[in-house]
Design a protein that fits this description.
Blueprint lengths: L7 H42 L6 E2 L14 E8 L5 E8 L2 E12 L6 E9 L14 E9 L24 H4 L11 E4 L21 H39 L59
Parallel strand pairs: 1-2, 5-7
Antiparallel strand pairs: 2-4, 2-6, 3-4, 4-5, 6-7
Length: about 300
């Protein structure tokens, strides 16, 4: 009954299913691994952002990478109070306020480092900001990656003088008269009334839409594998049922092994009893009856006169 599985058509179907299932499983497992990697990366970055351990020298953590973002760093230099900037429309615990950013010029003469000394509630107001420490000071806090304008929901352009929309070297290079490092530090121990700004994980390391897309692709690949098995079973069952019906005579026109020209009514097939050569049903032609002397009766038109 299952000899049809050895036909070329079923050989092609079987090979396709046998190859597609492991391909789908491997692809789904790979996508699941990508999602798990992003979950682990997100957990590590959260731990780094909450890290309050011993700070390391700033130069040892440069250049900035995804492994050093969020780590505690310290740098010694002089705060530039004349070029202090306010970063408006920043929220903390649901409250609207602004960051206080003061450039720190390292003692070794390197590029200045933007230091966010803290957060204050309300509209940006320079008079409410306490003055930075005078003379040589040490800033200690979490290293942060430069911001991107696409990530900021607040206005980033057409701001009043003394305000900054995006914390990055690209935006500070036109504001400060000296080179600036493309990184910033958020101080963990602030002076009142400033509130520490919590560190954030870098872009691409959190559970964003891309991570959940990997999880969705995982489900899709496993669904494809299950669908391939389901369709093979459906085709197999249909083939078996068709053969059983043909053996029972439920489909005489589709009996196994019958050539299309041998089916009743097919062109070139012997006509069934009671049919005309054209295949139309009708009574058989009647033979001509003999006359009284036993000779066959004439049919058709009489012969023309001699």
């Amino acid at each position: 009954m299952y000899r049809f599985l050895l036909t070329p058509r079923w050989w092609a179907i079987n090979v396709f299913v046998v190859l597609s299932i492991p391909v789908c499983v491997i692809a789904g497992t790979w996508q699941l691994g990508r999602f798990e990697d992003q979950v682990d990366s997100h957990r590590e970055q959260r731990e780094l952002a909450e890290d309050t351990g011993e700070a390391r020298p700033f130069d040892e953590l440069m250049p900035l990478t995804t492994e050093t973002v969020g780590r505690q760093a310290e740098i010694t230099g002089t705060f530039d109070a004349e070029h202090q900037l306010l970063v408006p429309e920043r929220t903390l615990d649901g409250d609207r306020g602004f960051y206080v950013l003061t450039p720190l010029r390292p003692a070794d003469g390197g590029p200045a480092v933007p230091v966010v000394r803290g957060w204050l509630p309300g509209a940006a107001d320079a008079s409410a900001v306490p003055a930075p420490p005078e003379g040589e000071a040490t800033a200690s806090g979490a290293l942060q990656a430069p911001e991107s304008p696409s990530e900021i929901t607040a206005p980033t352009t057409a701001l009043p003088e003394g305000q900054l929309g995006v914390i990055s070297a690209a935006s500070l290079i036109n504001v400060l008269p000296y080179p600036v490092a493309d990184v910033w530090i958020t101080v963990r121990d602030t002076e009142a009334p400033l509130t520490p700004v919590p560190a954030e994980a870098p872009t691409g390391t959190g559970l964003d839409m891309d991570a959940f897309q990997n999880l969705g692709y995982t489900a899709e690949w496993f669904v494809f594998a299950a669908f391939a098995v389901f369709m093979w079973y459906r085709l197999f069952r249909r083939e078996v049922e068709t053969q059983r019906d043909a053996e029972l005579g439920l489909h005489p026109d589709e009996r196994p092994g019958a050539h299309p020209d041998e089916r009743p009514g097919a062109r070139g097939a012997p006509a069934a009893p009671g049919t005309t050569p054209s295949g139309l049903s009708g009574p058989p032609a009647q033979a001509s009856a003999p006359d009284r002397e036993g000779a066959p009766a004439r049919t058709g038109s009489p012969a023309p006169p001699a």
